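Subject: design request, 395 residues
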């Protein structure tokens, strides 16, 4: 079985809103069998019978699996402000000034607030000069080094949202955030920067390394972070949550389920210590742990359990979180609903996410989800067509 055919099967399975587990059940096979099929490792299967059944399940002509080139979604260009931020990381400005630390803090916090309000392009526009001034100011100030790290952390988190085109500068920003944090000696800053480094490993598909790194960092810094009050507890809890996400990267297995559950439990224990008093724009607390459980279940190919877990969360508690976190959760529940054939629920959640945060819904991965819904819904209504058009999709 050539790998091109496997990729085409994976593409059309995804377009039909099927997980590997769903497709395996329809084919009368296991999820592992589907993994091998899509990876091109099932050389001994009778090719024609497998492909005929796959085409039937996927509702496409057989020739699309045999001869069509693997369809690709064109990469959407980065917004101009985001592209400028990415470019600035490769060509650092030498025009930075030494400024009062309080002025630097005010400017960094403005960028953080723009991020939390999902005004990503506004944050991206202001970050390059902030980073330039922070570099100069941090030379003789540990407090400014913390702010430099915070600005780089924000740059990394923002760039991660824009997928493969921004991945390399995002990883670079995370590494610089960690370097600045270590120079400051502040454990909260070190832990927060390490979380962005772990996220970078996930975006590079190095999931096991990400999970191990985040968990090890949490264990190493735990005493210092617990003594640092709410900011330290928020950082500690978020490290465990990133470790839980990293544990899901190789798909569903008994080990992955157990490890992810253990990390979620550890995060839950920290959240019980802290309550809902999340700091450093993390929204960390019991509700955010519950939201991560939904995400983890979805990543472990259990979309039905993810839907059920989301339904158990108090909507008022979610409404108390930051706008960015609310919108991101709505995108997660939309994915789970699409995979469980609750497409009207998926559309509703995406529209609500757009109301809260239009720039969150304009991200490449969310636009792909909207495109999938267009194909999966037999007669798209005006709400879905309008959303697709606002995402730049033909509808």
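Subject: RE: design request

Done. Sequence follows.
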């Amino acid at each position: 079985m050539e790998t091109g055919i496997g990729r085409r099967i994976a593409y059309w399975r995804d377009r039909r809103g099927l997980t590997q587990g769903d497709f395996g059940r329809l084919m009368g096979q296991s999820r592992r069998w589907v993994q091998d099929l899509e990876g091109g490792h099932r050389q001994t299967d009778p090719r024609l019978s497998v492909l005929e059944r796959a085409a039937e399940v996927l509702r496409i002509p057989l020739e699309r699996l045999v001869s069509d080139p693997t369809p690709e979604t064109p990469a959407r260009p980065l917004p101009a402000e985001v592209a400028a931020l990415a470019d600035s990381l490769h060509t650092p400005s030498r025009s930075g000034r030494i400024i009062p630390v309080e002025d630097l803090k005010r400017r960094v916090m403005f960028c953080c607030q723009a991020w939390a309000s999902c005004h990503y392009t506004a944050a991206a526009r202001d970050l390059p000069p902030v980073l330039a001034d922070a570099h100069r100011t941090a030379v003789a100030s540990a407090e400014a080094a913390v702010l430099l790290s915070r600005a780089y952390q924000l740059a990394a988190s923002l760039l991660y949202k824009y997928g493969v085109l921004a991945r390399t500068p995002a990883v670079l920003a995370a590494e610089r955030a960690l370097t600045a944090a270590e120079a400051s000696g502040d454990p909260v800053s070190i832990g927060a920067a390490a979380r962005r480094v772990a996220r970078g490993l996930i975006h590079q598909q190095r999931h096991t390394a990400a999970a191990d790194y985040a968990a090890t960092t949490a264990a190493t810094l735990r005493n210092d972070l617990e003594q640092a009050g709410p900011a330290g507890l928020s950082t500690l809890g978020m490290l465990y949550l990133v470790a839980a996400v990293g544990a899901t990267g190789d798909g569903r297995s008994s080990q992955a389920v157990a490890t992810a559950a253990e990390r979620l439990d550890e995060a839950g224990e920290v959240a019980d210590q802290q309550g809902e008093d999340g700091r450093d724009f993390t929204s960390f607390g019991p509700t955010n742990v519950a939201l991560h459980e939904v995400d983890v279940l979805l990543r472990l190919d259990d979309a039905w359990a993810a839907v059920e877990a989301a339904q158990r969360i108090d909507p008022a508690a979610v409404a108390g979180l930051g706008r960015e976190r609310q919108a991101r959760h709505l995108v997660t529940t939309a994915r789970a609903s699409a995979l469980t054939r609750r497409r009207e629920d998926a559309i509703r959640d995406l529209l609500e996410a757009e109301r809260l945060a239009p720039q969150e819904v304009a991200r490449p991965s969310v636009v792909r989800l909207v495109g999938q819904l267009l194909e999966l819904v037999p007669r798209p209504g005006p709400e879905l067509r309008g959303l697709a058009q606002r995402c730049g999709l033909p509808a």
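The chain is about 75% helix and 0% strand.
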